[in-house]
Structure formats: structure tokens, C-alpha cells
């Protein structure tokens, strides 16, 4: 009898173990999901502003794919609140990484990063990286900006083209200068009007500046800053977006535009953090055409408004850029007046 009971207990234990095993397997993936690293976005402007919007979209994309958890705060401004926000996030949420734009908040970002070396600070900056934990990036979209300039030079009827930028700083200048160089390749006689609104996000001022350029004869507009496309729509003119595909802001008006894709940068940082190898470095290469960090926005059927010879040349230049056969010069000085 004792032997029978022993056997019976052993059988029951085997059955119970087999029944419990599947439950443990179904819980494992859930545990993995909760351990996805937290990335935080700290943005000085509203995310409607294309520069910060591009970073936000890339972070949201990888979060939707389950690679990270993602939270953010925007419209922090430049009046001293960035440091407070970053310290609160670092203390209370302890993220694996904080992404954002340091322009206008450089000192605050670097001060906070120094006090939290265990957090990866990955910020848009015109300065260099700082050991041990501040990596920097920037938008390097001068190559597709050049292609846009070629198109602008080919579609203008008045030979006057308007560009509205934020500040005359190297990051903006190289985009505007590349655009102008593209114009000049196909239309040496064209005049390019350049206005800086001295703000990173002031749609009303950008629109007003664009309308002044229209009054001065411009019939094509390049919206380096948000708000210019509104002027193009109001006046029935063609325009170029910037940073992201902005066709929806002006269907039948926006031809294309330089697009900045931050996903390669974000994915690289994720891999570094997962491997425990994050270092302070300049992530510039991941925002270039060669690594998929920049490209020309889709035409959405608007190529019908571009002369065939110009469109063909643009496609040729695009391919040459990708293959390293054509170099768009990087000019970071303020744009010189044209014709």
C-alpha cells in the first residue's frame, strides 16, 4: 500500500509539473516587455515644429515596435526650464536615454548630464560630444536640399525664389546654401531671397516673411521654417517643405522637400544601450543620405509640374549622391546675396 501511495504521489507531481510549465512560458515574454528601456524626449519647441517633430516621430516609431518605452514633454522653451525638467526626469523616471534639442539650452543639458553619468543624453547640438554620456547629432539634409534647389530653379517663372529660415547658424546655413547651389546649377540667372526670422518656431512670422518675398517677385518658396507653406497656399504658389514630408500641409502646392530620418540614429543608440557600450560621440553619419538619414520627400504626383529634363537631372544627381559620385558642398557661412 505504501508503495502504491508513493507511486501515486510521484505521478501527481509529474502531472502538476506538466500543467504548470506552460503558464511559466507565457509569462516570460511579458516580463521581457516590461524591461524595455525607457527613452524620454525633452523638446524645447512644440513637436509640431518639424525639427523636434522628426525626433519625436522616430522615438514613437521604435516604441510602437516594442523596442523601447517612450515618454516626452515638449514646448519647454529657452527661459531656463530645460534644466529643471531634465533633473526631474532623471531623478523620478531614471530613463536609459534622454533625447532632445540642445540648441539654445546647451549649458543646461550638459550640466545635468554631468550629474547623471548613468543616463545616455542624446541631443541635437552644434557643439561636440562630452564624455562620458553626451552624444550629439544634427540634421544633415543639405544633399536633398540641393536637389530641391534644382527643382526650384527649373519651375520658377519669375526667376525669383524665396527662402525663410530660422537663424543664420551653421545648421540652417548649410541647408540654405545647398538649396541655392542647386538653384544655380540649373538656373544661374535666378535670384534667391533669404530671410531669417530669428526664431525656431514662429509660424506667423515665417508666413509674413514669405508673403514679403512674394511681394518682391518670388513665385516659389522654400519653407526652412514652419509657416511658409501657409503663404504658398494662400498665394497659389509652389513650395518645398523641410525636415519631414509636408505635402499634407499644402496639397497641390508642396512639390517635395528634404526629409530628415532620425530612425537610424535612434536604433543605433538602442543597440549601444542594450550592449552596454554607449559612448559620447558625434552621430552625424546616421543623419546622412548614405545611412538613410536623409532623402527627398515623395512627389505625391506633383512631378507633373516639374519639367521633364529637370526631373531627369534631379534623379541622376540623387543616384550620384547615393553612390558617392556627386558631392554637395557643406557651406556653413551665412548665405551671400544672389544676383
TrEMBL record:
Q: Which InterPro entries match?
A: ABC-Purine-Binding (IPR052910), PnrA-like (IPR003760)
Could you say which residues form the signal peptide? 1-23
One Pfam family of this protein, by short name? Bmp
- Keyword annotations from UniProtKB, A to Z: Signal
Domain ABC transporter substrate-binding protein PnrA-like stretches:
50-277
Tell me which stretches of the chain form a coiled coil. none
Write down the superkingdom of origin.
Bacteria
Q: State the CDD domains in the record.
A: PBP1_BmpA_Med_PnrA-like
Membrane spanning residue stretches: none
Listed under GO cellular component are:
plasma membrane
Supply the name of the protein.
Answer: ABC transporter substrate-binding protein
